[in-house]
Amino acid sequence: MVWWPFLKKEGRRNMGKIVLVTGGARSGKSTFAEAYLKDKDPVLYIATAIAYDEEMQWRILHHQKSRSRQWETLEAFANILEKLEKKKTAYGGILLDCITVMLTNLLFLREDLQEDRYDAPFWTTFEEDMRKELKQLLEYFQGLPGDTVLVTNEIGGGLVPETPISRAFRDVAGRMNQLLAKEADEVYLMVSGLPLKLKGASS
Question: Is 62 a catalytic residue?
Answer without folding.
Answer: no
